[in-house]
Design a protein that fits this description.
Structural class: mainly alpha
Largest sheet: none
Helix content: over 70%
Distance between the termini: 58 Å
Radius of gyration: 16 Å
Oligomer: single chain
Number of domains: 1
Order of helices and strands: HHHH
Length: 103
Amino acid sequence: MTPEQFLERNPNWKQDASELCGLTVLRMIKDSRLPMPWTDETVTLIGEMATKMTLEIFEQHRAQMGDDLFGELVLFMGEEAMRYANLARSGTELSAAKRETLQ
């Protein structure tokens, strides 16, 4: 399969990759005990790990995607993972603030 054929068969690959990355970030947060409040290093670590885990799934399609498209995926996933990690950070901080207010 050529990169063009891959794109024809998978026109929503970026959306699929983004959703997978978001689910990966959520699973990582659920399965770990992260210190509160989150530091920038925590967000970076989550972003890097989510990128790595998501790219491992797409690695099996690398030959079909071609180097250029896979390179675009790597950059896109890095940005998405950090975006999701920062959203999760905001959500956990908001949750913590609401818990404090209720107590």
